[in-house]
Design a protein that fits this description.
Elements (H helix, E strand, L loop, with lengths): L3 E2 L2 E5 L3 E5 L4 E2 L4 H5 L5 H28 L8 H5 L11 E3 L6 E9 L8 E9 L4 E10 L4 H9 L6 E7 L4 E7 L13 H16 L2 E2 L8 E3 L5 E3 L6 E2 L34 H12 L4
Antiparallel strand pairs: 1-4, 2-3, 5-6, 6-7, 7-8, 8-10, 9-10, 11-14, 12-13
Length: 288
C-alpha cells in the first residue's frame, strides 16, 4: 500500500478467516528511527525488512512441505453419525477454575455461524475427579465477568460456571458453562417465580455496584420448565468503569419501530444499573 508493507494470513475454517499478522511497516526509514539511531538507520531498517521477507519465505516453504505430505481421507460412517466441530479449538484438557479438577473436553459443533464474532462451541466435559460427563458450552471471549456470573448463579438464574480463565495461547478468556436446553417461547412462558428470581439476581449484581449491560431478550434463555437463565457476562462490570461497544447495534424493528435498547443507551456510553432494570421491564413482556 504505497510505501507501506502489510502481511496477512488466511485460514479456511467453516469459512475463510483473514487476519493481519504484523502491523504495516514503512519501506521508508521512519523519522523516529533516524532520531534514535545508534547506527546507520538505513542499514538497520533494510535488515529488518530483509528479516521479515526471509521469515515469510521460510514459512511458505514449510507450509508447502506440510500440504504436500497430506493425503486425502474419506469420512467413515462413524464420522457422519457423530459430527464433531472441525476444526476444533486446541484446548482439550484444563484444570477447572471452579474446583472440578481436571476436565477433558470433546467439541461437538459450533454454536453459531462461522461469521459470528465469538467462537462458541457445544461440547461435553468429563470430570476426572467425579468421573462424570456433562454437556457444556465453551466460549472464547476477550472479557468476561466471572464474579457477576457466580452472583447470578446464587439466584439460580444462570447456567453453572464450570471454568473461566484467561488462556494465553489464544489471548482470550476460555469460559465453560453447563448446557441449558432452551424451549420455544411459543411452548413455555416465564413464571412469576422466574420473574422474581431475575429481579433478585439483578439486585445481587447491583448491590456490588455491578451493571450487566446486555440484558436483551436473546440473552435470557427459558428452559423446558419456563425457568430463566441469563447468559453472556462479557460486558458486565463496575458501574462507571464499563462502556457499551462503539459498534452497538442501534437499528430498530422495521415493523414496530422499536429499538433493542432503552433510552440513554448509546454506542460508547456508560453502562448503568438503571439500564438493567429498564431493559428487564422492556423485554419481560416477550416472555409472559
Amino acid at each position: 500500500m504505497g510505501p507501506q508493507l502489510s502481511l496477512s494470513g488466511s485460514i479456511f475454517l467453516n469459512g475463510v478467516v483473514t487476519k493481519p499478522l504484523i502491523p504495516p511497516i514503512s519501506l521508508i526509514v521512519p523519522d523516529e528511527a533516524i532520531e534514535n539511531a545508534t547506527e546507520d538507520p538505513l542499514r538497520t531498517h533494510v535488515r529488518r525488512l530483509a528479516h521479515l521477507l526471509l521469515t515469510l519465505r521460510t514459512c511458505l516453504q514449510q507450509l508447502e512441505a506440510d500440504y504436500a505430505a497430506l493425503s486425502p481421507t474419506k469420512p467413515t460412517p462413524k464420522d457422519k453419525d457423530e459430527p464433531r466441530a472441525r476444526p476444533a479449538p486446541h484446548l482439550e484438557s484444563i484444570d477447572s477454575s471452579e474446583g472440578h479438577g481436571q476436565i477433558s473436553l470433546t467439541y461437538e459443533k459450533n454454536a453459531h455461524s462461522p461469521r459470528y464474532a465469538h467462537a462458541v462451541f457445544y461440547a461435553s466435559a468429563h470430570y476426572s475427579r467425579d468421573n462424570k460427563t456433562v454437556k457444556c458450552v465453551v466460549k472464547f471471549t476477550k472479557r468476561y465477568n466471572a464474579e457477576a456470573h457466580r452472583l447470578m448463579a446464587g439466584a439460580n438464574v444462570t447456567a453453572e460456571l464450570i471454568h473461566c480463565k484467561f488462556e494465553p495461547t489464544v489471548g482470550m478468556f476460555c469460559v465453560i458453562t453447563s448446557y441449558v436446553s432452551s424451549a420455544s417461547r411459543k411452548d413455555v412462558r416465564i413464571s412469576e417465580d422466574g420473574v422474581n428470581a431475575l429481579q433478585k439476581g439483578l439486585e445481587l449484581l447491583h448491590a456490588q455496584s455491578l451493571a450487566f449491560g446486555d440484558l436483551r431478550d436473546a440473552n435470557i434463555i427459558l428452559d423446558e420448565k419456563g425457568w430463566p437463565h441469563v447468559i453472556d457476562f462479557d460486558w458486565c462490570g463496575t458501574e462507571g468503569t464499563v462502556h457499551y461497544p462503539f459498534d452497538l447495534n442501534t437499528e430498530t424493528d422495521p415493523e414496530t419501530g422499536e429499538g433493542l435498547w432503552v433510552d440513554d443507551v448509546k454506542p460508547g456510553g456508560l453502562i448503568k444499573r438503571e439500564h438493567d432494570r429498564d431493559m428487564l421491564r422492556k423485554h419481560l413482556a416477550k416472555f409472559c
